[in-house]
TrEMBL record:
<protein>
    <recommendedName>
        <fullName>Protein kinase domain-containing protein</fullName>
    </recommendedName>
</protein>
<feature type="signal peptide">
    <location>
        <begin position="1"/>
        <end position="21"/>
    </location>
</feature>
<dbReference type="GO" id="GO:0016020">
    <property type="term" value="C:membrane"/>
</dbReference>
<dbReference type="InterPro" id="IPR000719">
    <property type="entry name" value="Prot_kinase_dom"/>
</dbReference>
<dbReference type="GO" id="GO:0004674">
    <property type="term" value="F:protein serine/threonine kinase activity"/>
</dbReference>
<keyword id="KW-0732">Signal</keyword>
<dbReference type="InterPro" id="IPR017441">
    <property type="entry name" value="Protein_kinase_ATP_BS"/>
</dbReference>
<keyword id="KW-0067">ATP-binding</keyword>
<keyword id="KW-0472">Membrane</keyword>
<feature type="transmembrane region" description="Helical">
    <location>
        <begin position="236"/>
        <end position="259"/>
    </location>
</feature>
<keyword id="KW-0325">Glycoprotein</keyword>
<keyword id="KW-0812">Transmembrane</keyword>
<keyword id="KW-0808">Transferase</keyword>
<keyword id="KW-1133">Transmembrane helix</keyword>
<keyword id="KW-0723">Serine/threonine-protein kinase</keyword>
<dbReference type="GO" id="GO:0005524">
    <property type="term" value="F:ATP binding"/>
</dbReference>
<dbReference type="InterPro" id="IPR020635">
    <property type="entry name" value="Tyr_kinase_cat_dom"/>
</dbReference>
């Protein structure tokens, strides 16, 4: 039986995983343009799902303003606000973005981000700054360069920054200096850097990657080498095989645990059945009891599934119930019942033979497996606890007179005296 179940599970898992593989391929071949707010329908290389499915740049449209995630270097890991997206052709787009870090520089003059401003770049996709830009030369202070008279300069940390307002490149700088291209505002004639945080990026997908996506493939980087996975079935089959073996292992473990549980349950049932037989024999030997025995289902019925709780003690909870003859009772459901039940039945037999006006009457009991309960006549006025303990919230309006307290004390004493001297059980 277990082998048949294993085979069925193995077969079904393969069908499910093969269907998943076909679903992945269908997604790759049907990446259609999507609606993105004011930008209208946009598509490859922009996508609204995590790359590399259907594109390389993810745009999140369901927020204001929309944001885009760019790859590589300091550009990766944080979103940029998207101002506009325009198409040139299938592989080229122009995206106008707002760089919030650059915006912070413009408002606080923190130059650390300014001198590390670089355009993202990868073998899959390239970016070109099409907004008017300014070329800066970043030179380490250790080079000890004398500032040319035709260049402006500023200092930032361990670097000196040189630039010209006319943006004319200088060829006289040492090789140790690097260049920075910063976007600037158009038609600016100020004798200072007029950097802007809003600029246009031309996004161009590599020809190889574009051809891969046009054929329904998936363009990825493997150790900086571009690769195109057309069907991805090799990886999916590997996944299927690995998952199948893992599933079989998990199933075998579940079957083993189920077998252990079944064996344990069977042993417990045998022990409980033996204890039940011993108790039944014990009851027969003691003769008929003067009180009724109820099943656990009877207990649930008379208490309306333990709906009205009267109190909680160390041995269990007490619930209000009603017998079929209309008599109200207090049902004490015992917890943590141990032993084979003979001690419980012995106590029930002893208590059932007590009869005194000052001792609550036991009207029945329940013994069914580990379920044990005592059924007493209900005291409609409740417990003395609510009358005599100041900490009980209900005691404030339940003051008892001295005469009543005296009668209660005498009644308790008579009940105790009966249990100690007058009761032959």
């Amino acid at each position: 039986m277990a082998s048949v179940f294993l085979f069925v599970f193995f077969l079904l898992s393969h069908f499910v995983l093969l269907h998943s593989a076909e679903e992945v391929q269908r997604k790759l071949q049907n990446c259609s343009p999507f609606q993105c707010g004011k930008f209208g329908n946009i598509g490859f290389p922009v996508t609204n799902i995590p790359p590399p499915f259907c594109g390389l740049l993810r745009v999140i449209c369901d927020q204001t303003p929309p944001t885009i995630q760019l790859p590589q270097g300091p550009w990766s890991g944080r979103p940029y606000e998207v101002i506009n997206i325009s198409y040139t052709n299938y592989t080229t787009q122009t995206i106008r973005i707002r760089d919030l870090s650059l915006w912070e520089y413009l408002n606080t003059s923190k130059c650390e981000y300014l001198i590390n401003f670089t355009l993202p770049n990868s073998p899959l996709i390239s970016f070109k700054l099409t907004t008017p830009n300014q070329t800066l030369f970043k030179c380490s202070r250790t080079l000890d360069i004398t500032s040319p008279t035709n260049l402006e300069n500023m200092s930032c940390g361990d670097y000196n920054i040189y630039y010209t307002i006319s943006n004319e490149a200088s060829q006289s700088f040492p090789s140790g200096c690097s260049t920075i291209q910063l976007p600037v505002q158009e038609h600016s004639h100020k004798a200072e850097l007029n950097v802007t945080a809003e600029f246009d990026l031309e996004v161009r997908v590599s020809d190889a990657c574009s051809r891969c996506y046009s054929r329904g493939g998936l363009c990825e980087l493997d150790k900086r080498v571009l690769s195109c996975h057309h069907l991805l079935l090799h990886n999916l089959y590997s996944f299927i095989i690995a998952t199948s073996f893992a599933g079989i292992g998990v199933l075998m473990f579940i079957i083993y645990c189920f077998w252990r549980k079944l064996s344990s349950t069977k042993d417990t049932w045998k022990k409980e059945n033996l204890a039940h037989q011993n108790v039944e024999a014990f009851l027969r030997n003691r003769g008929p009891l003067v009180i009724s025995r109820y099943s656990y289902s009877d207990v649930k019925t008379m208490t309306k599934s333990f709906n009205d709780k009267l109190g909680q003690g160390g041995y269990g909870s007490v619930y209000k119930g009603k017998l079929q003859d209309g008599c109200f009772v207090a049902v004490k459901v015992l917890n943590n019942s141990k032993g084979n039940g003979e001690e419980f039945i012995n106590e029930v037999a002893s208590i059932s033979r007590t009869s005194h006006v000052n001792i609550v009457t036991l009207k029945g009991f329940c013994f069914e497996g580990s379920k044990r309960a005592l059924i007493y006549e209900l005291m409609p006025n409740g417990s003395l606890e609510k009358f005599i303990y100041k900490g009980n919230p209900s005691s404030s309006n339940s003051q008892l007179g001295w005469e009543t307290l005296y009668k209660i004390s005498i009644g308790i004493a008579r009940g105790l005296e009966y249990l100690h001297r007058g009761c032959n059980t």
